[in-house]
User: Which sequence fits this backbone?
């Protein structure tokens, strides 16, 4: 299970912090939500890598039998 996968509750917390960072900074929302600031910064830093992996997964043709 990938804790940083889209749709995960932790990712939703990170996205909330990102969305409100200008108004509240990082420390206050992270403390309130109970997440480490370092985890938030890691999530932000690796966003481009995750997006590239996602693009690779959806662009690869599926192998095996197709359902009818």
Assistant:
């Amino acid at each position: 299970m990938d804790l940083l996968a889209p749709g995960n509750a932790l990712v939703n917390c990170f996205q909330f912090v990102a969305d409100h960072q200008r108004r509240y900074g990082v420390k206050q929302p992270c403390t309130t939500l109970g997440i480490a600031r370092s985890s938030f910064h890691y999530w932000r830093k690796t966003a481009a890598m995750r997006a590239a992996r996602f693009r690779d997964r959806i662009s690869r043709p599926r192998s095996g039998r197709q359902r009818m």
Notes: The mean pLDDT is 84.
